[in-house]
C-alpha cells in the first residue's frame, strides 16, 4: 500500500468518526514516514501519544509509543528507542496483545543489535520468534530468523549466519513473498563476501524474480547492481554491462542521486578492469559531481582514492597525490579507518618513487599506526565474540535445565551432566582462546611485522597469521588457499642490471601484489625473491583466478620505468586446505606446484 502524504492524512483526520480513530491514523502515518521523514514521524507519534493520554486511550498510548520507537531507530537514537519500545511492550503484555508485544520486542532487539549488544538482541529475537510461531505469521518468522542470522554474521560466524538465512526461507510456505526475497538477497551478500560468486549470482537472480513480481523495483535493481559487480570480477564484461545499464537507467528515471553516484562508480570499475583508464576517469568524475551535489562525504573519499589509484597506474603522479590528499582530508572527518590506511600507504609508495623519503616515511608510519589500531580493534571484537558465544551457551544451558524439570529425574540428571560437560569444554576453549589473544596483545609491541624493503608482511608475521587462520578454517569447516610466487630469473636481474635495480623490482612487485589482493588477503615476503599469499574463505579455483590476475598484472607492467631492457614475470604455485590436517604440508604442496610452474617454462600458475 502506498504511504499517505501530509495532505491526505489531514483530510482523513478531519473526516475521522472519533478522536480514537484520529490517534490510530496518526500512529499509522508516523509508521509510514519513519524512513523518509523520521523527524516528522516522531513529531506525529508524540502528538498521538499526548492525545491518547488525554483520552485515557490505552491502546493508543501503546501504539504511539511503538511508532515513536520506530522513528527513533531511524534517527539512530537507540537507547531512547529501546525505552519507548519497552514501555509499549509492557502495555501490550497487560492486554495480552501478542502482535503488539512481538513488534515491540522486535524493536527492542533491533536497538540492541544496533548497539552491538548481541546477546540481549538474540534473546529478544528468539522471544519474538516464539510469538510469531503462535500467530502462524510466516513472513515475520522469516524476518526474525534472518535478523538472527545477521547477528551471527556480525560476530564472524558465517556458517551459522547462512544456516539461519536458509532456515528463514525453508520455514515460509510462501516461497515468493517479499520477505523471502530479502533473505535471498542477504544470502547472496554472504556468499559474495565468502568468495562464492556463482552461488551469489544464483541467489541474486532468484531474489530479483521475486522483487519484480511484487513491483519492488528498487530492490530488484539492487540485485542487478551486485550481479554486475560479480560479473566484472569474473571478467564477463559483456554480461556485466547489461546489468550495469539496467541499474543506471532505473536510477536516472527515479532521480536517485546517491544510487546514480554508485552507478557511475560501478561503470568506472568496469572500465578500469578492462584498462580503459580514460573512460574510468570520466565515470569517476561524473560520480564525484553527483556525490558532491548530495554531500555524501564517504562516497567522495572513496571516489577520490579510486581516481588517485588510476592516476598512479598511468604515472600521473602529481594528480594521484592531489586526489589521495583530498580523500585523506575527508577521511579525517568521517570514520573510514581502512581507507585512511590505504591512502597513507599509497602516498608512501608514490613519495618513495619521487625520492621524497621524508614524506614517504611519514605516510608509512601513519599507515602502520592505523593498521595497528585496526588490529587491536579486531582482537577486541574477537574477544567479545568469544564471550558472546559463551553467553549463548549459558542461555542454552539455562533453557535446557528448565525443560528437564518436566521429565523424569534420572533422565534429567543424565542429560544435565552431558550439558555441563559440554559447557566445561566450551569454557576451556574460551579460556585457551582468551589466553592466546592476551599473549598476542602483550607481544605486539615487540614484533616487527613488516619487511623493511617491500613494506609487505614478513615471514614471521605470515607464519603466525597462517597458523591462526588454518586452525580457524579447520574448526569451522571453512576453506583457505595458499600461493607461493617466485620472480623468474631474478638472479639475472641483479647480475645484469645491479642490486639497486633488483631492489626496485622487489618494491614494485610488492605494490602490484598488494593492489591486486582483497583487503582480507595477506601477502608477505617469504624470503629473497619469493612471496607468499594467504587467501582466506577462498576455494582453489578462485585462488587460481586471483593468482592469474596477479601474474598477468606483473607481466603487463611497464618495467621500462625502472630499466628500458627490463622484463619481469612470476611463477606461482597454489594449494588449498580442504584435504590437509596441518599448514606445513599445505605450504609444501604449494612449493611443489611452484617448481612445476618454473620447470614447465615459468610465467604461469600451477595448482
Describe the structure.
A hairpin with a 2-residue loop joins strand 2 and strand 3 (530-536). With 607 residues, this protein is mainly α. It contains 25 helices and five strands. It has helices at 6-15, 19-32, 38-55, 58-74, 78-94, 98-114, 118-134, 138-154, 158-170, 178-193, 197-213, 217-233, 237-253, 257-273, 277-293, 297-313, 317-331, 337-353, 357-404, 409-443, 459-475, 490-497, 499-515, 540-556, 583-599; strands spanning 480-487, 522-527, 530-536, 570-576, 605-606.
Q: What layout of secondary structure does this protein have?
A:
Blueprint: H1 6-15, H2 19-32, H3 38-55, H4 58-74, H5 78-94, H6 98-114, H7 118-134, H8 138-154, H9 158-170, H10 178-193, H11 197-213, H12 217-233, H13 237-253, H14 257-273, H15 277-293, H16 297-313, H17 317-331, H18 337-353, H19 357-404, H20 409-443, H21 459-475, E1 480-487, H22 490-497, H23 499-515, E2 522-527, E3 530-536, H24 540-556, E4 570-576, H25 583-599, E5 605-606
Parallel strand pairs: 4-5
Antiparallel strand pairs: 1-3, 1-4, 2-3
Helix pairs in contact: 1-2, 2-3, 2-4, 3-4, 4-5, 4-6, 5-6, 6-7, 7-8, 8-9, 8-10, 9-10, 10-11, 11-12, 12-13, 12-14, 13-14, 14-15, 15-16, 16-17, 16-18, 17-18, 18-19, 19-20, 22-23
Amino acid at each position: 500500500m502506498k504511504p499517505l502524504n501530509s495532505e491526505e492524512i489531514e483530510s482523513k483526520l478531519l473526516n475521522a468518526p472519533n478522536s480514537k480513530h484520529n490517534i490510530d491514523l496518526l500512529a499509522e502515518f508516523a509508521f509510514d514516514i519513519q524512513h523518509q521523514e523520521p523527524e516528522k514521524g516522531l513529531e506525529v507519534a508524540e502528538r498521538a501519544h499526548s492525545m491518547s493520554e488525554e483520552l485515557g486511550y490505552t491502546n493508543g498510548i501503546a501504539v504511539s509509543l511503538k511508532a515513536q520507537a520506530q522513528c527513533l531507530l531511524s534517527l539512530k537514537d537507540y537507547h531512547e528507542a529501546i525505552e519507548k519500545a519497552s514501555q509499549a511492550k509492557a502495555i501490550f503484555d497487560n492486554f495480552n496483545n501478542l502482535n503488539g508485544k512481538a513488534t515491540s520486542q522486535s524493536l527492542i532487539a533491533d536497538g540492541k543489535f544496533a548497539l552491538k549488544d548481541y546477546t540481549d538482541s538474540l534473546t529478544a529475537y528468539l522471544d519474538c520468534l516464539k510469538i510469531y510461531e503462535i500467530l502462524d505469521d510466516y513472513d515475520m518468522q522469516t524476518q526474525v530468523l534472518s535478523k538472527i542470522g545477521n547477528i551471527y554474521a556480525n560476530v564472524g560466524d558465517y556458517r551459522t549466519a547462512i544456516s539461519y538465512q536458509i532456515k528463514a526461507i525453508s520455514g515460509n510456505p510462501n516461497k515468493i513473498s517479499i520477505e523471502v526475497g530479502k533473505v535471498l538477497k542477504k544470502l547472496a551478500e554472504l556468499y559474495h563476501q565468502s568468495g562464492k560468486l556463482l552461488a551469489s549470482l544464483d541467489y541474486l537472480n532468484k531474489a530479483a524474480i521475486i522483487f519484480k513480481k511484487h513491483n519492488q523495483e528498487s530492490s530488484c535493481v539492487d540485485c542487478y547492481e551486485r550481479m554486475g559487480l560479480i560479473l566484472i570480477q569474473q571478467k564477463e564484461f559483456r554480461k556485466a554491462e547489461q546489468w550495469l545499464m539496467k541499474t543506471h537507467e532505473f536510477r536516472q528515471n527515479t532521480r536517485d542521486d546517491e544510487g546514480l553516484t554508485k552507478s557511475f562508480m560501478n561503470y568506472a570499475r568496469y572500465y578500469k578492469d578492462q584498462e580503459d583508464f580514460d573512460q574510468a576517469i570520466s565515470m569517476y568524475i561524473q560520480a564525484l559531481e553527483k556525490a558532491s551535489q548530495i554531500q555524501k562525504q564517504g562516497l567522495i573519499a572513496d571516489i577520490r582514492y579510486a581516481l588517485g589509484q588510476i592516476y598512479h597506474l598511468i604515472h600521473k603522479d602529481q594528480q594521484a597525490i592531489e586526489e589521495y590528499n583530498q580523500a585523506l582530508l575527508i577521511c579525517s572527518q568521517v570514520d573510514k579507518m581502512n581507507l585512511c590506511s590505504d591512502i597513507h600507504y599509497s602516498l608512501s609508495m608514490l613519495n618513495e618513487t619521487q625520492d621524497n623519503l621524508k614524506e614517504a616515511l611519514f605516510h608509512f608510519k601513519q599507515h602502520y599506526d592505523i593498521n595497528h589500531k585496526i588490529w587491536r580493534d579486531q582482537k577486541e571484537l574477537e574477544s567479545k565474540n568469544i564471550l558472546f558465544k559463551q553467553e549463548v551457551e549459558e542461555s542454552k544451558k539455562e533453557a535446557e535445565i528448565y525443560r528437564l524439570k518436566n521429565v523424569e529425574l534420572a533422565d534429567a540428571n543424565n542429560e544435565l551432566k552431558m550439558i555441563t560437560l559440554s559447557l566445561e569444554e566450551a569454557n576451556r576453549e574460551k579460556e585457551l582462546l582468551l589466553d592466546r589473544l592476551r599473549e598476542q596483545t602483550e607481544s605486539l609491541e615487540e614484533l616487527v611485522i613488516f619487511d623493511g624493503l617491500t613494506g609487505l608482511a614478513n615471514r614471521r608475521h605470515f607464519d603466525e597469521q597462517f597458523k591462526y587462520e588454518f586452525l580457524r578454517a579447520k574448526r569451522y569447516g571453512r576453506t583457505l588457499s595458499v600461493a607461493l610466487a617466485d620472480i623468474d630469473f631474478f638472479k639475472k636481474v641483479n647480475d645484469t642490471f645491479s642490486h639497486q635495480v633488483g631492489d626496485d623490482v622487489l618494491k614494485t612487485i610488492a605494490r602490484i601484489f598488494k593492489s591486486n589482493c582483497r583487503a582480507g588477503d595477506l601477502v608477505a615476503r617469504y624470503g629473497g625473491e619469493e612471496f607468499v599469499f594467504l587467501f582466506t574463505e577462498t576455494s582453489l579455483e578462485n585462488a587460481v583466478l586471483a593468482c592469474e590476475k596477479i601474474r598477468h598484472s606483473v607481466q603487463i607492467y611497464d618495467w621500462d620505468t625502472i630499466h628500458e631492457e627490463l622484463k619481469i614475470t612470476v611463477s606461482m604455485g597454489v594449494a588449498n586446505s580442504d584435504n590437509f590436517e596441518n599448514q606445513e604440508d599445505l605450504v609444501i604442496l604449494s612449493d611443489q606446484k611452484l617448481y612445476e610452474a618454473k620447470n614447465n617454462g615459468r610465467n604461469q600458475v600451477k595448482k
